[in-house]
Structure formats: C-alpha cells, structure tokens
Design brief:
The structure holds two protein chains of two kinds. Chain A is of the alpha+beta class. Chain A contains seven helices and 13 strands. In chain A, a hairpin with a 4-residue loop joins β1 and β2. In chain B, β44 and β45 form a beta hairpin. Chain B folds into seven domains: about 140 residues, Ubiquitin-like (UB roll), CATH 3.10.20; about 170 residues, FAD/NAD(P)-binding domain, CATH 3.50.50.60; about 130 residues, FAD/NAD(P)-binding domain (3-Layer(bba) Sandwich), CATH 3.50.50; about 80 residues, Arc Repressor Mutant, subunit A; about 140 residues, Probable tRNA modification gtpase trme, domain 1 (Gyrase A, domain 2); about 90 residues, Alpha-Beta Plaits (2-Layer Sandwich), CATH 3.30.70.1400; about 90 residues, Aminomethyltransferase beta-barrel domains (Elongation Factor Tu (Ef-tu), domain 3, Beta Barrel), CATH 2.40.30. By secondary structure, chain B is α+β, with helices and mostly antiparallel strands. Chain B is built from 21 helices and 48 strands. The chains are: A alpha+beta, B alpha+beta.
C-alpha cells in the first residue's frame, strides 16, 4: 500500500490521517488519503485532505492578464471561481492575485504547465502547495458546521456556487470556496500550512455534532 | 405539595428524578427545576443572603433574582429556580458556616447597626496595620459559592446565525410579530428564554375562567410550528444587543451569535416586589412566582395565603391560588378605591376578604425563623405611610403583584431611552434604535388582544410589508396614579435590593452623604450591582433616590444598563477557545527525538532534546562547537521581495544599503520604527537583480510583513511582497563538520570556502529537494541555513541526519542556540533591545547607511545621536567565584543609582566562564571597566566589560 513517507513531498497532516487508519493512493510525487475504515458520509458531512494535489498561485499587477494569456479562464469578479473544462478550478482572489487548484483526479496538467512557464514582469509565482493546506468539507451539514467556526453566511442560498470568502475560520485566515461536487454541497478550505494540524482538529471537533468524519479522495470523486 | 394534573404543564409525571440538596435526597420529575422540586417537597429555604445571612427562598421563580443561588457540584452560583433537575444531581446551599438551616454566621445581622451602607470604605483601614488582622477574616467570609480550580473544562461552543427579522420574546406579542414577518417570505428567528412559547400567558390569569390565555398560546404556537421560514429557539436567552443588531443568545452550552437586519423586542415585563419590613422571608414571593409554581410545576405554593396587589393581576393570582386549594386569607389591595375588574368581583364572590386601601407594614417569621408566619397590614394614609391600626393575618405564603417594569435591557443596550413615567408609574420605552421596535407589554401594551395586534404591526414593518412601525412610548390614556409600594419601617429590614441586603435606610443614608444621583448611589451602595442586576430592585431604588434627593421621577432614568442581561459563564464567552497553533514541518521529528517543546508565539519549538536540561544543553552546545548540529529555524520569517523596485524598497525599510548588494550575497538587515527604536533584524539574500529573500525574527515576522504592505500601499513601488514563512521550512546545520555533511547531499553547487564564502547564498538541490542555501553564522561556526519547501522538509531533515550520522550530528534546540549566539556576542531583538533601543546604543552603528536619503527612523536616530548616548550595550564577564549567577533584568548600580541592566547572561560551556550583555552608562562602557550588578538577595557582584565576540573574536570559525 502506498505510504506518504515513500515520497519526498508529504501531506502536512499525514500522521493524523495514518492514525485514523487512512489508506493512501500514490500521486505523481505524493500520497493522498483515499479512504478511511470508518469513513464519513460525504453527502452528509465529511472532511478530506487534498493537500497532496497540485495547486499554484500568481500575484502581481499583471498576474491575471498573464494567466488569461495562458489558456486560463480567469473570473471577471473578485472572490469568485471558474471551473475549467479540464476540472481545474481558477480562483480570483483579488485584482492582483489568482489561485489555480488542480482537478481532483489530478489528470489535468494546467498547474504543472503554468509552473514551467516564466511569468512576465509584474507576475510573480507563489508556491501554494507549500504555503497552503487544502481541505474539502462536503455534505448537507457543511454550512451548519462552518457556521460554528466562521462568521460568514455560507448557507447555499446566500453563498452561491463558486463564491469565495477570504475570512477567519476557527480563528485562522482562510480562503473558503464553494465548489459543489455533483449535487452535494462542498467547500474548499485553504489556509496557512503550518496550522494544518490545528485546523483539521478544530474542524473535526465542529463536525462531531453532525456525525461528520474524515473521508478519502474516493468518496469525493464518487460524488461526481 | 404536588398538585394533580392538569397543573404542572412542564413536568413529566412518568419520569421521576431523584437528586440531593444539602445532603438530603429529594424526588421530582423531569421538567422540574431544583426550586420547584424543593417546593413540591415543602422545602423553602434555599440560600443565605450576602451580607446578613438571612434565610432566602423563591422570589421570582424566573431567574430574575439571586435568592435561589446554589452550588451544583463544582459549579457555584447556579440559579435553582431555572436549573432543571436530573438524576443524581448534587446541590448544596452557599454562603453559610455549619449548615444552611443553622448558619452560624447569621449572628452578623445583630451587628447590622455597625454595617451601614458603604461601611467598608471606612472600616478595615485604621489604625494602621489593622487590615492584616481583618484580611483573613474577610477572605473567609466574603464571596458566594466555592470555586474548585480542578474543575474539568466543560464543552462550550458558539455558532453564527443570520436572520432578516429577530424577535426576542416568545410571548403572544412576539409570536404574532414572528408570524406576521414570516408572511413576507423573510427569514425569522424567534427567541424565547423559557422552555415553551407563550410567555406570561402560560401562567397568569387574564380572565375569570382562566382559560383564555392558554387558548391564545396554543393557537399561535400551532401557526408558528407550521411556518417554514421561522426558526424557533426556546431555552434561549438573548443576553445583549451590540452594534448592527448583533445578538448573543445563550442556549445550553452554546452562544449563538445572531445577526439580524431588524430586531423586535417583545420581552414583556418583570413583576416587582413591595418594600416592607422582612419582605425577604421565604414564603414571600411574587404573584407570578406562585402562578408559575402552580401552573408550570404543579406545586401548591402554600397552605394559607395573603395576596398584596393593586389592579386586576393580583386578583388573578388569588383565583389561581383558590384553584390550587390554597386558603386565601385576604387580599391587601393598595388601591384607594376598588377597580371594576371581573377578577376582583370573582374573588369577592368567593368570599375572600379584601382590605381595600391597605398596605404592608411587616412580615413576621415563625418561631425559630426561616419562613413567614403572618403579615401585618394597615390602612395607607399617604405615600409610604400607614395608619396605626394594624391587622395581623396568619399565612405561610404572601404573594406580591405590586408593580412591573419593562424588560427593556436590549432597548437600553442599543441606546434607546428607557425612563420613568408618572402616568405609567414605572419605566417606559421612550425611543428605540434604528432597525429595532418594541411590542407588547414591554412597550406598555397590557391588553392581550392589543399586544397581539401590536406584534402584528411590528412584524409587518420589520419585514418591509409596511412602513408603519410601532411607536414608543405608549402611555396609558386615563389611569389613576398607581399606589406607592414602599413602606419604610422604623426598625429597618425593609429590603430594596435583596442581592446586596440594602434597605430603605441604606439608600436614604447614601443620599444624605451627598450621593444624590442613582449612578452615584449605585457605586457607593452597590444597589442593582448584584446577580439580578436590578431586575427586581431598580424601580424601587430609583423611586427612593429621587424622593430623598428631592428630584422629579418623571423622565428619570435608572443606572446605565449594560450587557449581559443575565449571567454568562466564562465558558460561553470563550467557546472552543480557538488558538491556532503553528508547527514546523519537522515538529514530529523533534517530539520523536525526545525534545522538550516550548511555545514561541504561536509556534512550538524544541528547547532542548532530553530531560536533564542543564547537561543536555551543555552537550548540545559542545556538539555544535566540536562536530555538527542541526536546528529547526522554520519559525523565522521569510519574505520574497520581488520586482524592479525590490532593492529600493529594502533601502527604505531597513537601515543598511541594498542597492549595490551583489547577487549571490546576503546582507544583514536591521529595521527601526519611526522613533528610531530597533524592531527586527535578519538577512536579505539577493538571488537576482529583482529578487530578494529576507528573513525576520520569529516574533516579528508578521509585523514586518504588515509594515511592508502598509508602507508600499502608500509608496506604490513596483515590488511584490510575499510571505513565505509557512511555505518554506528552514534548518541550520552548524559546526566544523557541517560542510562535510552537506557535501554528501548537495552536488550541484560547490560548497568550498572559495566558491561559497561566508554570507553567500545559492539555489541548489539538497537530497534532490530544491533549496535556498544561506551561509550565515548566528552561532559563530561554519554553517548553512537551508530553506526548502515545507512539504518536503521532513524528508530533508531525515536526509541530513542520516548523512551526518558518521560525523556525530545531533539536533540542538533553542536554548543551546541562545548560548551559542551569546558566545558570539550576537543580540536577540526584544531580549537585548527594548522598545526604545536605537542602533547606536546597541553597538549597531555599523548597520546604518550614511548615504541613503531615507530609511525608517533615520531622522529620529540622528536626533538621538545629537542628544548623545544615555546607555550602551556591552559584553561582560564575571569572576568564577561569583556564586549564583545574576539573571536577565538584574540591575547595574552605581552609587545607589540604576545605570543599566543585564539583558543576557549564561555560564558559557565553550569558554567555561560567565558571560553576558548589559546596558551600562556610556562612561562605564570602556573595555576592562568594572561595574556592579545587584544580584539575588541584593548581593553586589563586580563585572568586567570585555569586547565581543567572546568566542572566536576574529571570526575564523564561521568563515571556514
């Protein structure tokens, strides 16, 4: 079975995942938790660690222009996201910052392609796979759970799909992006990687009330 | 005694519960509170009063008084009249010596003459030194309840909620408001502190038959449950109003933070007690308390009752008592003339004596004390005056329906005006904040049907269906003035504030002392400052203060009303206590290696690896000096400064010069604030013309980042500032064998002294992991800082430890590093500097560029130098015979004056002698100068100024 320590690059919380009995799946350069023995129900409330998946960021006055010029459909409005045809998600954080999350099957090469390019002046790459952790909270109880740790109204009728909130969640500055999986509510939660362990525990604590539990990548992919 | 159904709407007779009170077992039912279950078992003594240890029992039965505070397990000051019982609950009284029933401290009351209002401002201080005698006594007697510091933390949390319309108060006005607002298809939240909706109609009697109220409640409740867009919260108390309709709601162990576009306050009224001698005896309660006991808990509140009242409400109490099988001996009606009220007629028809125009002179306790045995009434001859023709009526229950005040705290929190109205004989809401309305009894609307109508009006306006908002104040058109309900007694014990044991004389004396305003009287006497926060005392207190001060009551306000409305636990305020912890990528390796971890800001860092700190740290130091050590320095800040103006930006932010810094080189950075004080340091590494990587201190990196963003938002230089602190982990491999270790893993860059000299920087791959290499020397040995992607740094650490095994590599922690750097004379910002230290004082003049036109703090530093130095940081040593070493912050003394202090000191393992850094006077700073340090126990120790670095002064080792 794949192990996180088989790779140089490791999830920030791989020990917590292993302690919870996670099975791992090899990606190109890291291992991702694919399932758990007492898996949560992704349609009700589940939390997945997607940190081993590729992502990248670009900052600067020319960042969005540069991205658009390299086959990336940058949203027109700040704090919104666009789902690309290859499944990658482009997030417009500001007039001068974009974030690109890979598709969850890690089949698209958008992130890798962008990282091999040398941006023009005014566009600066940021290694978001190291500065940020990346979790996904899914399920019908996701908004109720988030409202225990976040002051933004993320209920679906107030927070449309592909809306972004840059806010404080469990007292940690976090980027929250709604990105429904099939018909299931889902939110990407992205914040400083050094607090990944703290945030994972805080989220699970808030989830307990709704019988929320860790889920693996397989459950997320099964949602559609 | 327990009444049969249908009395007791809240209890489940099929679910018995047993609990203990004061060590004795009691039986109740699910739905009972501690107080109701005790009352059902004929136990009425629940607490002892704060000052005089008087026996106290049920007063409001709603949590609006402090008379029923008890200790429940480890939790003090729990209100027994609202705490539901559960199986096995252990309840004790508070504030007594011996037993609750036979409190040995009740003798205090005998000395009440010597304990007038505010006596503690004068007592205990004279003669000098007497406080030492009093303190122990006061500490043992003062306070309520017992705090057990071993109490396990409970699980408290918070949740945010949002609504278009929040209705606070689930009585009929609130229910109507919620229903009406919901018609507009908006989100409505209805908050009710009782377990059931309906408010006072669940227990008061508004009609003779006593059926109308419950029918109304049932109808409205059915409609509410059927509505889709109304969220109902019961057992939920809104404890305050904050800006923009931010409402904290306590429910169980959760605080819900509700934000609403519109708020409707429909919180009703709070019944008020009358003031007369011994009005605090157990068995004396509000009329509504008796009704709650009967209707909600199925408890007969007494055998033989007197009802004191004016108006129809008290007659409803009398009818309810009759229904509950209580012998109603008399109704003492304060009104001069009888009112034409159907309930009064029914009481009269029932043959109950009505003492019209009578007031209450005194309650008499039964023999042995502890409960009312009779009450003395007399005709009222004027406000507060009674004729000398008393009537004694035997009773074990006295119900007071003698006034109300609006529960308008939330209005006051929102800066609405709540003040006294003579026409209403109570407080009224005169104005409310924007986006707020009041409805129902809180707004003076007493007639139930009209209160419902007002609720509908408020709901329609709040939801935008109409513009017709409820107006305030609502004053009665035509009503005779309500009777004065305060009857002072020459012998006192006529309590105005039960929480603080304050009587009429206490308030009169406070005014006589010159405190002629309620705000002053409050602070001097502590009136309304107790657990009930004036809910059953503010009205009478204001009446007395205004009267004694010769001021008008009309328009007078009570003391400022602030949140919380009802007590909040610290648990509610803290919730889950989120404290984001930051861990480095190598954290688990440190723990596995036996590190003693320490907090450094939000981070955990290894202090040392082992248990015997002194020897472990010593060994770590020596291993770095003699072999090679590895330390995790990920917590230090890392910032990418990129763009055409990167060098210019650094030139402005730091004291040194970077415009001509060569690519591939590092240079020290020193940051000062606008006053010239040192705030941070690090190194700037130039990886290309437009690409700098700057390090900062662990504690300062967030502030440095914010400072940079703030200033560039104004300068608008063409530069990007990216905080890489979390994205790059860092480790420092240091020691004479460090190059040997690194060469095993890094083959794409030459590490030779010639090709990678001291203060050089390179991009390389170490163990096939991309890394930034900085050849810097904080600890004064050959060494490299390796900054690598955090997701790969655990693997990198493992590779370095494996590669270094043959050379004796060992990890070293923060404590060893502090010693190593001190041996090199390197300062630590905020340890060897303070909030005023400027570069010249700290011997850092070499880090200041003389040619730059501007950098932060430049002008202030120049001004300071013009004034001259007042202190200087120097290195020093102590003789070996110094004994117990002094510590940081021990003072430098000359001729009895303080001239400085120690900032760092240690017994150097490398040099085998004490060394340190200290601020001294400028004329003490010359090498070889001797100065005196005042160490432990005031012992003076002589220190000698020496140049720094203490170790390897020619820097040969770090430049290997």
């Amino acid at each position: 079975m794949a192990q996180p320590t088989d790779h140089l690059r490791r999830s920030f919380i791989y020990r917590q995942l292993s302690a919870a009995g996670a099975e791992f799946l090899d990606l190109a350069d890291a291992a991702i938790a694919s399932k758990f023995p007492n898996e949560g129900d992704a349609t009700k409330l589940g939390l997945a660690d997607l940190s081993p998946l590729p992502r990248t960021g670009f900052k600067g006055p020319q960042a969005l222009t540069w991205l658009a010029g390299h086959d990336v459909a940058v949203p027109q409005i700040n704090n919104t996201a666009n789902l690309q045809s290859d499944g990658s998600l482009v997030v417009r954080l500001a007039d001068t910052e974009g974030l690109v999350l890979s598709d969850l099957k890690s089949q698209s090469d958008t992130v890798a392609r962008l990282e091999t390019l040398t941006p023009t002046s005014g566009c600066y790459p940021v290694p978001r796979d190291d500065t940020y952790f990346w979790f996904l909270l899914s399920g019908v109880h996701a908004p109720d759970c988030l409202l225990k740790i976040c002051g933004v109204d993320v209920r679906p009728h107030k927070f449309p799909n592909h809306t972004v909130a840059q806010t404080s969640i469990a007292r940690l500055g976090t980027v929250a992006i709604r990105d429904d999986r099939g018909s299931t509510l889902a939110y990407h939660l992205i914040a400083d990687s050094t607090s990944a362990g703290y945030f994972w525990d805080a989220a699970l604590d808030a989830m307990a009330e709704f019988d929320g539990r860790p889920i693996g990548l397989n459950s997320i992919l099964a949602l559609g | 005694m327990r009444l049969a159904a249908p009395f007791g709407s809240l209890i489940d007779r099929n679910a018995p519960v047993s609990f203990t009170f004061e060590g004795r077992s009691y039986a109740g039912f699910v739905g009972d509170t501690v107080a109701s279950a005790l009352a059902a078992n004929n136990t009425w003594l629940i607490s002892r009063s704060f000052k005089y240890h008087r026996p106290r029992g049920i007063l409001t039965m709603s949590g609006d008084d402090g008379n029923t505070m008890v200790q429940v397990g480890q939790e003090p000051n729990v209100l027994a009249d609202t705490l539901p019982i559960r199986e096995g609950l252990t309840v004790m009284g508070q504030h007594y010596t011996g037993s609750l029933a036979a409190d040995r401290d009740r003798w205090v009351e005998m000395f009440s003459k010597f304990l007038p209002v505010g006596f503690y401002y004068r007592a205990f201080f004279k003669p000098k030194g007497v406080w030492n005698l009093w303190e122990k006594f006061v500490r043992s007697k003062a306070g309520l309840g017992r705090v057990d510091i071993s109490t396990h933390h409970g699980y408290y949390d918070k949740a945010y909620a949002f609504a278009d319309v929040a209705v606070i108060g689930g009585g009929v006005a609130g229910m109507a408001a919620a229903l009406e607002a919901a018609k507009a298809d908006v989100e409505v939240v209805l908050v009710e502190r009782q377990p059931i909706l309906g408010g006072s109609l669940n227990y008061t009697r508004i009609d003779v038959a006593g059926t109308k109220g419950m029918a109304l409640v049932q109808d409205l409740t059915d409609q509410l449950r059927a509505a889709k867009n109304i969220t109902i919260m019961t057992d939920a108390t809104c404890t305050g109003w904050f800006a923009d309709n931010f409402l904290p709601i306590i429910t169980g162990n959760r605080m819900v933070k509700l934000r609403a576009a519109e708020v409707i306050v429909a919180t009703g009224v709070i019944e008020q007690p009358a003031v007369f001698r011994n009005n605090d005896l157990p068995g004396i309660m509000l009329g509504s308390a008796a009704q709650r006991l009967i209707k909600l808990y199925g408890v007969r509140p007494g055998q033989r009752a007197v009802v004191a009242c004016y108006g129809g409400t008290g007659y409803g109490v009398a009818l309810d008592l009759l229904d509950a099988g209580v012998n109603v001996a008399a109704v003492v009606d304060f009104s001069k003339a009888p009112t034409d009220n159907p309930r009064r007629h029914a009481v009269k028809d029932a043959g109950i004596e009505i003492l019209q125009g009578y007031g209450l002179r005194e309650a008499i306790a039964r023999k042995g004390g502890g409960h009312i045995a009779s009450v003395i009434a007399a005709p009222i001859t004027g406000d507060g005056n009674l004729a000398d023709t008393p009537r004694t009526i035997e009773c074990d229950l006295l119900c007071m329906s003698t006034g109300w005040m609006p529960a308008a705290s939330l209005v006051a929190h929102a800066a609405g005006e709540v003040s006294y109205s003579e026409r209403s004989s109570t407080f009224v809401v005169r104005s409310v904040a924007d986006n707020m309305q009041v409805a129902g009894a809180v707004n003076g609307e007493w007639v139930v049907d009209s209160a419902i109508k007002e609720g509908h009006q408020a709901g329609a306006a709040a939801s935008g269906q109409t513009a017709n908002r409820v107006a305030s104040p609502r004053l009665p058109d035509d009503r005779p003035a309500q009777p004065w309900t305060i009857f002072p007694h020459e012998k006192g014990k006529d309590f105005v504030d039960f929480d603080e044991d304050l009587t009429v004389a206490d308030l009169r004396n406070a005014v006589a002392e010159g405190f002629d305003d309620i705000e002053l009287v409050k602070r001097f006497s502590t009136v309304v400052m107790g657990p009930s926060q004036g809910r059953v005392s503010a009205l009478n207190a204001l009446r007395l203060v205004q009267s004694h001060a010769g001021k008008a009551l009309e328009g007078a306000r009570g003391s400022t009303n602030r949140p919380p409305v009802t007590p909040e636990k610290f648990g509610h305020l803290s919730g889950r206590g989120f404290e984001p912890l930051r861990l480095t990528a190598m954290h688990d390796r440190h723990v596995e290696a036996g590190a003693e971890m320490m907090l450094a800001g939000a981070w955990l860092r290894p202090a040392y690896y082992g248990t015997d700190s002194e020897s472990v740290i010593h060994n770590e130091v020596m291993n770095v000096r003699e072999n090679v050590g590895l330390i995790d320095v990920s917590t230090l800040g890392g910032l990418d400064i990129r763009g055409p103006d990167a060098a210019e930006f650094l030139d402005r932010v730091y004291t040194f010069s970077y415009a001509r810094q060569k690519v591939g080189r590092a240079r020290y950075v020193l940051m000062c604030d606008q006053s010239g004080a040192i705030t941070d340091d690090g190194v700037a590494c130039r990886f290309s013309d437009e690409n700098f990587y700057v390090t900062a201190t662990t504690g300062g990196s967030d502030a440095v980042y914010r400072t940079m963003l703030f200033w560039n938002a104004q300068w608008r230089l063409n530069v990007d500032i990216t905080n890489m602190t979390g994205g790059l982990a860092a480790m420092n491999i240091a020691g004479p064998r460090s190059r040997d270790v690194l060469e095993k893993l890094c083959t794409d860059v030459s590490l030779s002294a010639a090709e990678f000299p001291y203060m050089g920087v390179r991009i390389a791959r170490v163990a096939n992991i991309p890394a930034r290499l900085l050849r810097v020397g904080f600890v004064g040995e050959l060494g490299y800082e390796i900054h690598a992607p955090s997701s790969m740094s655990e693997a990198l650490w493992d590779a370095l430890m494996a590669a270094g095994a043959e050379f004796g590599i060992k990890p070293f922690g923060v404590e060893a590093q502090r010693i190593l750097r001190l041996e090199k004379g390197h300062i630590i910002i905020s340890q060897d500097t303070d909030g005023l230290t400027h570069p010249h004082e700290a011997g850092m003049a070499w880090a200041i560029s003389r040619r730059k036109p501007f950098f932060f703090g430049r002008r202030a530093i120049e001004a300071q130098m013009k004034r001259g130095l007042t202190r200087k940081l120097v290195g020093f040593t102590l003789p070996e015979s110094s004994g117990l070493l002094p510590e940081e912050s021990h003072l430098v003394i000359r001729n009895g004056e303080i001239t400085g202090r120690i900032t760092s000191i240690v017994h150097s393992p490398t040099l085998n002698k004490p060394i340190g850094l200290a601020f001294v006077a400028p004329d003490q700073a010359e090498p070889e100068n001797i100065f005196s340090i005042k160490g432990h126990d005031g012992r003076m120790i002589e220190a000698r100024v020496v140049p720094t670095p203490f170790y390897d002064p020619e820097n040969k080792r770090q430049e290997l």
